[in-house]
């Protein structure tokens, strides 16, 4: 039985919620002693009665004033330019970090970058120095790119 009561209560509440909004006239009655009474009917002994009907049209909210579309487009364009500039800067910082890391990790010579000497030792060959120069140039380019942003 409680299920029926609950179901019927739900249906009644749902029917009340679904009702369309109807504009009702509101009366503002000013009484002889100066007090103000609002109601759906004017007070019979009121000195002054004003009425108003609220606008319930489904027009929505006008956010922009007429002619503001151009300003909005300019602001959106400036925001996108700023975001792309920030993305470029972040990318340049990341490239510099990677170049510096590669330069620091590239100090140790590779197996093919040493040659033997007549005295039994070994020395670094031109391949090592060329790689070091390339790594250093990469760091310099990355710093310049970041500096120019």
Describe what you observe in this structure.
The protein is an alpha+beta fold. The protein has a domain at 85-148. The chain has helices at residues 2-18, 69-105, 126-148; strands at residues 26-30, 36-39, 48-52, 114-116, 122-124. The chain has a three-stranded antiparallel sheet, with no helix packed on it. The longest helix has 37 residues, at 69-105. It is elongated and about 125 Å long.
Structure characteristics:
149 residues; two-stranded antiparallel sheet; 13% strand
Overall mean confidence score, pLDDT:
84
Query: What is the structural class?
Result: alpha+beta
Task: Please tally the β strands and state the result.
Answer: 5
Give the distance, in angstroms, between the N- and C-terminal Cα atoms: 75 Å
- List SSEs in N-to-C order: HEEEHEEH
Low-confidence stretches: none
Number of helices: 3
Query: Gyration radius, to the nearest Å?
Result: 40 Å
Main β sheet profile: 3 strands, antiparallel
- How helical, in percent, are the residues? 40-55%
Strand order of the largest sheet: 2-1-3
In short:
The chain has 149 residues and is of the alpha+beta class. It has helices spanning 2-18, 69-105, 126-148, and strands at residues 26-30, 36-39, 48-52, 114-116, 122-124.
Summarize the SSE layout with pairings:
Elements lengths: L1 H17 L7 E5 L5 E4 L8 E5 L16 H37 L8 E3 L5 E3 L1 H23 L1
Antiparallel strand pairs: 1-2, 1-3, 4-5
């Amino acid at each position: 039985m409680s299920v029926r009561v609950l179901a019927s209560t739900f249906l009644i509440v749902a029917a009340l919620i679904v009702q369309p909004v109807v504009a009702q006239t509101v009366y503002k009655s000013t009484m002889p002693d100066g007090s103000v009474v609002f109601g759906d009917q004017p007070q019979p002994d009121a000195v002054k009665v004003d009425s108003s009907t609220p606008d319930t049209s489904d027009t929505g909210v006008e956010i922009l004033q007429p002619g503001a579309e151009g300003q909005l487009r300019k602001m959106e364009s400036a925001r996108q330019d700023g975001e792309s500039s920030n993305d470029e800067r972040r990318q340049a910082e990341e490239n510099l970090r990677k170049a510096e890391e590669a330069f620091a990790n590239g100090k140790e010579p590779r197996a093919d970058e040493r040659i033997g000497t007549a005295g039994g030792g070994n020395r670094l060959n031109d391949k090592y120095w060329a790689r070091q120069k390339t790594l250093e140039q990469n760091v310099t380019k990355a710093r310049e790119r970041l500096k120019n942003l």
